[in-house]
Amino acid sequence: MSNQTAVSRLATTAAPVLDVIRQRWSPRAFANRPVPEQALQQLFEAAAWAPSAMNEQPWRYIYAHRTDEAAFRQLFDCLVPGNQPWARHAPVLMLALTKTAYSNGQTNAVALHDLGMANSHLILEATALGLHGHFMGGFEADKARAAFGLPDDLQPVVMLALGYVGQAEQLDEPFLSREQAPRQRRPVAAFAFQGQLPN
C-alpha cells in the first residue's frame, strides 16, 4: 500500500484522538500476504483484556487462515453472497461469538456489549500491527450454528475478514467505489447529549 493511500484513509476528527483510532478503517482489498499466527495470538491477547460484566469474558472466536483451505471454506460458506467476492481474498476469516448466559446459568444481558469491547480491543491491536479488518454482519448465523455445532447459549454475532491492505484497484464494482469513497461519521452533537436526549 502506498503512503498516499495510507494517508488518504486517515480519519479527520473534530477533536484529538489516538492515532490508532484514526488509522483504523475497514478495507475490502487485501494483499496476498499471510498473517503470522503469532500476530493473531497477539490480537486475541488484546481481546482477552477487554472489560466484561462479572469478568465472564463471554467472547469466543473461530478463525482460519486461507492456507487452511477446508477450515477457511467452512467459515467462507457462512457469508452472504454479497460479501464473498472480496472476502475470499482475505488471509484470515473469523467468526466472533458470545456466550449469552453467565456461569450460573442466568442470562447475560450485556454479552453483546462485552463481545463488542473485545472486538474493539482486537481490531485496534491489529491496526497497531499494520493489519486491518472488515467486520461483517452479512453472514448466515443458522448456517454457522450447524457448521460448528454451536450450543444454544453461544450466539454467532459477526464475522471478520483480516489481513494487510491491498490495492483498491483489484476490486470489481460496486466494491471499488466503496473502497475509495470518503470516510464519514456523524458529528458528536448528533449522538452525545448532556443531561437528556432532545425531544
TrEMBL record:
Top-level lineage group: Bacteria
Entries under CDD domains matching the protein: TdsD-like (cd02138)
Keywords assigned by UniProt, alphabetized: Oxidoreductase
Ranges where the Nitroreductase domain occurs: 21-69, 80-164
Family: Belongs to the nitroreductase family.
Name of the featured protein: Nitroreductase family protein
Organism: Hymenobacter terrestris
